[in-house]
Amino acid sequence: MYYKFSGFTQKLTGSAPTAAYSPQGLRPGVPAEAPPMIFASPTKLVSEAKTVEYAVTNRVPDLQKLFQIPDGVPIHLKRGVPDRLLYRTTMALTIGGTLYCLVALYFAAQPNKK
């Protein structure tokens, strides 16, 4: 048996196979006319564009050369002061958070004084 949602009773009701496969809100077919153009001016293809204003130089080859130098510095510290600052800040926050959790667990383990 086939079922169809009834908009009147807001329940599923039995129906014929053709009605079950054609929902109420959908109509088969193609629109009679083409939709209107959205853009007033013609659009340019990518090949027609001369330069892109927001494009910057590609730094990937320079960074690849920097990261492949075998100088003994760990990869997360290769770019100098900003990397060291981020690394040390991350380590300080990690150690501080661990100590804070241990202190909180210590206080939570103490019996209540009534």
TrEMBL record:
Bilayer disposition of the protein: Single-pass membrane protein
Ranges that cross the membrane: 85-109
Pathway: Energy metabolism; oxidative phosphorylation
Gene3D superfamilies found in the cross-reference section: Cytochrome c oxidase, subunit VIIa
One GO CC annotation: mitochondrial inner membrane
Location relative to the cell: Mitochondrion inner membrane
Family to which this protein belongs: Belongs to the cytochrome c oxidase VIIa family.
InterPro entries: COX7a, Cyt_c_oxidase_su7a-rel_mt, Cyt_c_oxidase_su7a_sf, Cytc_oxidase_su7a_met
Name of the featured protein: Cytochrome c oxidase subunit 7A2-like, mitochondrial
GO biological process, one term: regulation of oxidative phosphorylation
Pfam families: COX7a
